[in-house]
Every structure is written in structure tokens, then in C-alpha cells.
Amino acid sequence: MTSLTEQQNVADFYDFEAALTEEERRVLLRTRAFMRDEVQPLVAQHWADGTFPQELISRFRESGLVGLSYEGYGDHGPAAGHLLTGMMAMEMSRVDASVATFFGVHNGLAMYAIHACGDQAQRDRWLPGMARMDTIGAFALTEPLDGSDIAAGMHTTARRDGDTWVLNGAKRWIGNATFADHIVVWARDVDDDQVKGFVVEKGTPGFTAEKIAHKTSLRIVENADVTLTDVRVPEGDRLQNASSFRDVAEVLRATRSGVAWQALGVMTGAYELALRYATQRQQFGRPLAGFQLVQDLLVKSLGNITSSWGMLHRLAALQDAGVFRDEHSSLAKAHVTARMREVVAWSREIFGGNGIVLEYDVARFFADAEAIYSFEGTREMNALIVGKAITGQSAFV
Q1: How many helices (H) and strands (E) does the chain have?
Q2: pTM of the model
Q3: What is the pLDDT of residues 108-157, one digit of tens each?
Q4: Residue ending a domain, choose from 237, 261, 290
Q5: DSSP characters for 164-211?
Q6: Torsion of CA 43, 44, 50, 51, to 10 degrees
Q7: Range with the lowest mean pLDDT among 23-27, 143-147, 149-153, 319-323?
Q8: Which positions ≥6 away from 350 have C-beta within 8 Å?
Q9: Acyl-CoA dehydrogenase/oxidase N-terminal domain spans which residues (predicted)?
Q10: What is the CB neighbour count within 10 angstroms for residue 246?
Q11: Both 76 and 180 in a single domain?
């Protein structure tokens, strides 16, 4: 099937793209064209095989789309605003959530952790190469036994030994870790019991990353089980401005909204596929789009997409103004991913039996939605963050 990404975003029913400047619009269209021309032809087979298309790294390098959020790093002017970067995440996920996740881990979690938690010398050391995608980043926080409770339950340890730190422990679900050059590893200092960040370089003795196999979601992403056995990291590679889990939370607060934009992209891509299929597929002598029940599913899907657009548009404005809080990004992540889950299910339903065949793409969106629904904080954990903000009462155990 021909992708609708070569046309206008028909799911942008209220024309939110009109809020972009002319230059921002050009960047968005460049993102759309890149995903259409470079990514879409590759993803179905790589998703089926569970492999990452390494050739995309050099194509991203040439695209000029990396590092736009970081002024002074990369060949661009002022840092892009949150509305543009959010829409870029949406455009990527509109074609493939796995590639968008690879990009988000590198350009968001890893680069932002260094930008926010490193000192100026560390930013100047690592970010230029990452902004050119000459080097790839990963972000290692989640552990085999600790996900939602990682703030209190982190088992990975860091022990100071002269001018180096010795890291021991394990991490799980670490995207890009099998081939990343710089892995931001979070560990608990055994002396003060505080969480600190370290940049572990590829090839460091004692660091291993084993690809997680047999996934049914985001199959293109190379998630890994990471093991750290007496990994020695110089003091100069400890992120100098990360001294507690509050600093980790700051990184997650900033990147969680990007996951909500990804969710918008996934439901947009699924909806567009369903809309096209409904207008082309004939049953009982007429297009599926001519049946009331099918139209109802499409309208409900468009309503979810449009309301999510409105929430994220306002969230981007709060971010640009520097007044957004944890509960703002948590509400967006919880709400938009829940709406995404509904839309991908309705879209797959419109395809009937064809909806489970990769040839029609919607099955990929349906499966990938499950991972996005869960990572960067489950719906329940984000609901508790918002609940505490609106009631003043903590319901965390």
C-alpha cells in the first residue's frame, strides 16, 4: 500500500501544523520526506526479522534532523522549540515507532542526560559527535527487578576507588545498548546512597549488552540486557551535575512528553491506514467507508487524535515557557497513550482479517503501541503523579 505520508497529514483535522513558523514547517516536511523515502521501505522486513537497519544511521547523519534541541551542537541555529521537536517525534512514529524510539533514546534520553547533568566540558566532549550521529547514545536506568520502583529499588552500585568508579549490577530493556558508543548508566553510590550518572564507553571491560529476543513489540529496537561487572569509569566520565535521583527525574520529565508525541504518531499512522483501506476495500458492493459502523470507528479515532493534539500543543507551550511540571508531562503520557491504544485497536478492526498481516502495516502499529503504553512510566504510575498533584495526597506505597 502507498503511504499517506507523501500527502498532507489528514489526521491533523484542526491544522495544528499552522502554528509552526515557515522555517519550522520546512524542518517538519523534511522529517516527513525522510521517513517516507528512507525509512518506510525498510521497516516491514526489519520488523518481521527483529533487526535494526544499521544503514539508517548514516542516512540520519546526512538528514540534518539530529540534535536540533541543543543550541551550539550541530549545524543549526537556535534550539528548536518543543512544538517542532514534538511534531518531529510524531512524524517519525507515524511511519515506525521503533525508528522513532531509536532516535528518541539517542537524541532525547542520552543527549539530554549529558546536556542537563554533565558539566560544560562533558557537553563539549560528547554532544558534538552525538549531534552529528557520529556516535550513538543509550540510557541505562531500568533493571531486571526494578522498573516503576527504580527510584528506591536501584541495585546497580557505584564505588569510588581513587580517581575511578567501579560499577556493578544489571540493567534491562536498554535501547541501542548493543551498538551504542556512549551509555549513560545510573547507579547508586554505596557511600552516600545517592543515584549518580556515568557515561560508559563502548568496549569498556566488564560491560556486556545482550540483545533481548522474541519481542512482540518494537521489534526493530535493539533492547538489551546489560551486565556491569567491575566496570571502571574515570571520575571525568561521571556526570558532574547529577547527584541524586531528582536529576534522573528531571531527564524523564523532559523526555516523557516526547513519548506522548510518539503515541500521537502511532495512532495517526494507524488511523491513516484504516481510512485509506476503508475507502478502497469493497464489501457488499460498496466501500467499507460507506458503512455507518466503520465511519463511527473512524470518527472516534479522529476525535482521540485531535484531542491529543490539543493537549500536546499546549504542553509544548508550557515547556517553551519553562513553567511545565512533572504532572503536566505525566498526564499527557498517561492520557495520550491510552487514547492511542483505542485507536490502534479500532484501526486494526477496520482491516478485519487483513489487520493481522504485516503487508497491511496496521498490525505493526497495533503491536508497537503496547510498548509505548508501558515505557517512560506506566499509566498507573503517571496517574499517581497527577493524583498527588491535584489532591495533595501521595498514594504511592
Answers
A1: 13, 9
A2: 0.92
A3: 999 999 999 999 999 999 999 999 999 999 999 999 987 777 777 899 99
A4: 237
A5: EEEEEEEEEEEETTTT-SEEEEEEEETTT--EEEEEEETT-TTEEEEE
A6: -30
A7: 149-153
A8: 274, 277, 278, 288, 294, 297, 298
A9: 21-133
A10: 11
A11: no
70: nearest Cα among 106, 29, 33: 106
CA dist., res. 225 & res. 145, Å (int) = 12
Question: Which cell numbers hold the place of 35?
Answer: 521517513
Cα–Cα distance, 126 to 7 (Å, whole number): 37
Q: Which residue has the cell 535521583?
A: 245
Both 11 and 111 in one domain: the answer is yes
Judgement on whether residues 377 and 253 belong to the same structural domain of the protein: yes
Q: Please report, as a single letter, which amino acid is at residue 91.
A: E
Nearest to 371 by CA among 90, 93, 180: 93
CA nearest neighbour of 169 among 233, 251, 250: 233
**What's the domain count of the chain?**
3
Domain extent for 211: 137-237
Residue whose entry in the numeric block shows the C-alpha cell 507515524: 94
H/E element holding 238? none
- CA gap 167, 163 in Å, rounded: 13
Q: How many Å apart are CA 98 and CA 217, to the nearest integer?
A: 9
**Residue 269 contacts by C-beta under 8 Å, 6 or more apart in sequence?**
93, 94, 95, 361, 365
